[in-house]
Specification:
This protein is mainly α. The chain has 22 helices and 6 strands. 46% of the residues are buried.
Length: 491
């Protein structure tokens, strides 16, 4: 899917920059060089945004490698890329420009969502980033200034607010592989994502002109939000060339990826059958003829131990690989950037913090139920994993049951731990960022190693935008660009 849409976009982009090509699929405009139907750009942008990323689940102590030392597993990463600017944000901007030509507000609205999504994730990775002057090369701005993280976060909240107000159910949304053109569902995703941004800023009281708690309450109380897993902001994969699950046929998944004991033990301790959908039995358990639903047949490796130590568990036949559905099932499960389950955890946290009225327990229970519904819906042959399981009984067990009278810290630990348990290959870096802002769940770390708070800026910025980068570093990190410098959102 990704490659097909890329080829469509490249073809369209050629037409945008040259009048010499005679391309049948481009609608020529005598008053302009060329026009590209925004539906092609929407399809490409959506397919790219929703792909699965395995790096976060190393950092989040869910999987381990046993062949080489993975920098994410051992918290040793360095810089990250700005490719999002030259690919994703550029394509999003082109889609919005083409939508303006045909006066279709909905493509512009979805463009605002993707801008918010990309700038949000870029800022969480680095801190201050180019925002107000970003992606304006056509206007002559090739060395954009950096905006503070607070400016970025306030800006994207305003863009999403505008998007919510502009969306029009009468404007068609062709090329929509997320919601099949359903503007009402996009509106729900946009408002739910506004809440995600605000809860991520839980350490702050204000962002720009927004009071975080009151803005959250206003959105939660007056705007449409997701109400079931059918509203999930997710990409469904298809068993067709270039449309298959991101990790399908991945050689690494079939050979050297194993489960981390920290992640597995959360499920074993709670007798949680979602474990069976993530992990495979140990070789020893298979040879012993243990049932798939026997929790003793699953074991993980220590994410803080040298990879050679974990490799020894393979020889001992006592470590679980990642469930083979992740690399053998062409369609597998959808990949989400924000699910109904995650939204309910966000609402549970907001209720626990006193930002909104209502029951934190109800939202927490809804979130867990939604997660089980997701896996029972999308995992093939779910009966082999969930037969006889009763989610209400699960919610009543001591390690799961929610106590609204407990301290805020205890309530947050319960919410964030269960939220973490829903995010294997889902929602990208969300679990890691939740850990940074709350301390939950309590990741195991190597002695003397702390969890990085950010990424270093890419070398390309030092080469081509050095003056603006140095100004940004001086204003936020005292001139130092290191992974343990604390960004604004965590202060």
């Amino acid at each position: 899917m990704k490659n097909i849409f890329k080829s469509i976009f490249v073809t369209a982009l050629v037409a945008l920059t040259s009048c010499e090509s005679d391309l049948d699929k481009i609608n020529e405009n005598p008053n302009d060089q060329a026009s590209v139907d925004p539906k092609y750009l929407l399809t490409y942008v959506s397919a790219d945004a929703f792909q699965v990323n395995q790096d976060p689940i190393y950092a989040s102590r869910m999987i381990i490698g046993t062949d080489v030392e993975n920098p994410y597993q051992y918290m040793k990463w360095n810089d990250a890329s700005f490719d999002t600017y030259t690919k994703d944000l550029m394509n999003t901007g082109k889609m919005m420009q083409e939508a303006e030509k045909i006066n279709n507000k909905n493509y512009q609205v979805i463009g605002k969502f993707y801008r918010a999504f990309y700038f949000f994730n870029l800022s969480l990775k680095f801190g201050s980033i180019p925002y107000s002057e970003a992606v304006k090369g056509e206007s002559g701005i090739t060395q954009p200034k950096y905006d503070s993280q607070e400016t970025v976060m306030a800006g994207i909240l305003s863009e999403l607010k505008d998007a919510n107000n502009l969306i029009n159910s009468n404007d068609k949304i062709e090329g929509d592989i997320i919601y099949n053109g359903d503007a009402a569902k996009w509106k729900k995703l946009i408002n739910s994502f506004r809440l995600k941004i605000l809860i991520t800023l839980s350490k702050k009281t204000t962002v720009g002109n927004y009071n975080i708690a009151s803005e959250f309450a206003s959105i939660a109380g007056s705007q449409p939000l997701m109400t079931s897993i059918t509203d999930n902001g997710e990409l469904k994969f298809a068993d067709a060339a270039d449309s298959r699950y991101t990790m399908f046929n991945s050689s690494g998944y079939g050979s050297s990826l194993y489960m981390a004991n920290y992640f597995i033990n959360l499920f074993k301790d709670r007798q949680d059958p979602r474990l069976f959908t993530f992990a495979a039995q140990t070789t020893g358990a298979k040879e012993a003829g243990k049932l798939i639903t026997d929790f003793t047949g699953y074991n993980g490796g220590n994410p803080t131990s040298p990879y050679s130590d974990n490799a020894a568990l393979i020889t001992a036949k006592n470590i679980s690989k990642v469930n083979d559905r992740f690399y053998k099932d062409a369609t597998n499960e959808p990949s989400s950037v924000l699910s109904y389950s995650e939204l309910e955890f966000i609402l549970a946290e907001a209720a626990a913090r006193g930002w909104i009225s209502g029951s934190a327990k109800t939202h927490y229970d809804n979130a867990i139920k939604a997660s089980f519904t997701f896996y029972q819906t999308y995992v093939k042959n779910p009966g082999q994993y969930f037969s006889g399981f009763n989610v209400n009984n699960y919610l009543a067990t001591p390690l799961v049951a929610y106590d609204s009278s407990a301290s805020l810290s205890s309530q947050l630990e319960k919410i964030i731990t269960q939220k973490y348990m829903t995010m294997f290959h889902q929602s990208q870096w969300t679990s890691y960022y939740d850990y940074l802002r709350t301390g939950f769940p309590n990741y195991p770390l190597q002695t003397g190693v702390s969890a990085p708070l950010r990424f270093r800026y890419p070398q390309s910025e030092y080469n081509y935008n050095n003056a603006n980068l140095k100004t940004a570093l001086a204003s936020q990190y005292g001139g130092s660009d290191n992974i343990n410098a604390k960004p604004w959102w965590l202060q």
